[in-house]
Design a protein that fits this description.
Elements lengths: L1 H22 L3 E7 L6 H20 L8 E7 L4 H13 L5 E3 L4 H14 L3 E3 L14 E3 L4 H14 L4 E7 L2 H13 L6 E8 L7 H8 L6 E5 L4 H11 L6 E3 L6 H7 L7 E4 L15 H15 L5 H20 L4 H9 L4 E2 L4 E2 L15 E6 L2 E4 L2
Parallel strand pairs: 1-2, 1-3, 3-4, 4-5, 6-7, 6-8, 8-9
Antiparallel strand pairs: 10-13, 11-12, 13-14
Helix pairs in contact: 2-11, 3-4, 5-6, 8-9, 11-12
Length: 381
């Protein structure tokens, strides 16, 4: 009888604790994501991740004794819509922190608003322009396009590939990647002997690839884009019988890319986070436990494979939550300062060490060079 009474009392205490959390004013996490449109295969896993972990955190008692509330909008991969939704999140929804945009275009359309409103913003997009130059209220979780170019050129140099054709998308991510590739190529002894572009809605890149194939001296091709475009490029590449090594940027770091490109993806290389090869990381790797746990939770809940893009959302949310805890407040200035002082956070993208001059906190070692073998990602030799 006493044991039963103790259990009832314990259950009542837990119930009261849960009730007090949900009775408290929520901490609002605002998000603008590209859940539909051309960037949907980035935005969809990002939203799934945020929903999953907000629910999980709330089940464990919330943050500072308050529940998290995710307030999100779908910009449909349209940067102009992202601006309007960001305004709504700030002015109407009164969110405490922003996690997301999905794309560089959406992110940059939101930046002036968050800077004016003095609200912490953690972007999930790739371009270096988001955090270089440093903007007081803006941070990001993914590796930059500049880092992707450097990692690819580093690998090419090791393989004796110095004459490279660049094929980039004319989107915000692709055009920024083009510029960064042009800027850092010389540092690695790389000469861009061809430099072609394609539009985000193009459905056949054979003309550009035919030009590249006829360019004298080409030893490798580097594609900078995201969404379906790079998969189309990969298929066209094989259809034309091109045999140079083919590299992509980190904008296609997911199992979905392999599905879209099919057998044509075999042998391509790209830089990505350890999340895509969680099962292949050494037991001593500091990321092993984090990426394995995230991958297991995501696949069990959503019955689909993980992507690095969902991982970026995980890191963004966890960095924000950790900052709120360390600030012991949702005061926007205190949270901003706490995000900027993030040190030693081991996430899906790598180990993050931010500072007043670095609002991303990752170095080149956070990237792994991966290759498609047997229809799966492996660590490139």
């Amino acid at each position: 009888m006493k044991k039963t009474m103790k259990k009832l009392v314990a259950g009542a205490v837990l119930a009261l604790g849960a009730m007090s959390v949900y009775a408290a004013e929520p901490i609002k996490i605002g998000s603008v994501l590209s859940v539909t449109g051309p960037a949907a295969f980035l935005g969809d896993p990002e939203l799934k991740t945020l929903e999953m972990y907000v629910e999980d955190i709330n089940k464990k008692g919330g943050v500072l004794g308050r529940p998290l509330q995710l307030v999100h909008y779908d910009d449909g991969s349209d940067a102009s819509k992202a601006n309007g939704f960001a305004k709504r999140l700030i002015d109407d929804d009164k969110v405490d922190v922003l996690v997301g945009g999905t794309t560089t275009g959406s992110t940059m359309s939101m930046v002036p608003l968050v800077e004016k409103a003095n609200i912490p913003f953690i972007s999930l997009a790739g371009a270096v322009v988001i955090i270089d130059p440093v903007k007081k209220w803006v941070f990001k979780t993914p590796h930059t396009d500049r880092m992707a170019a450097e990692k690819v050129f580093e690998d090419m140099k090791k393989r004796g590939l110095t004459k490279v054709a660049l094929l980039s998308e004319t989107s915000g991510f692709g055009s920024s990647g083009k510029k960064q590739s042009e800027d850092v190529a010389g540092k690695y002894g790389i000469t861009l002997v061809a430099n072609e572009t394609y539009g985000p809605k193009d459905t056949d890149m054979s003309p550009q690839l035919t030009k590249i194939r006829s360019t004298a001296g080409v030893q490798a091709v580097f594609v900078f884009g995201f969404g379906q475009g790079p998969a189309i490029v990969t298929k066209n590449y094989r259809q034309l019988g091109m045999s140079f090594p083919l590299y992509h940027a980190h904008g296609v770091a997911s199992a979905e890319f392999i599905k879209l490109a099919g057998p044509a993806a075999e042998g391509i290389r790209l830089p990505a986070a350890g999340l895509l090869v969680a099962d292949k990381l050494a037991a001593s790797d500091p990321q092993k436990a984090v990426v394995t746990a995230y991958g297991k939770a995501f696949t069990e809940k959503w019955k689909t494979e993980v992507s690095t893009f969902g991982g970026h959302a995980y890191d963004g949310l966890m960095i924000a939550v950790d900052a709120i805890k360390r600030a012991n407040s949702t005061d926007k200035s205190k949270v901003r300062d706490a995000i900027e002082s993030t040190k030693g956070y081991v996430g899906t993208g790598g180990t993050v060490n931010m500072s007043s001059t670095d609002h991303m906190g990752l170095d080149l070692s956070a990237f792994r060079m991966l290759e498609v073998k047997g229809g799966d990602w492996v660590i490139a030799k």
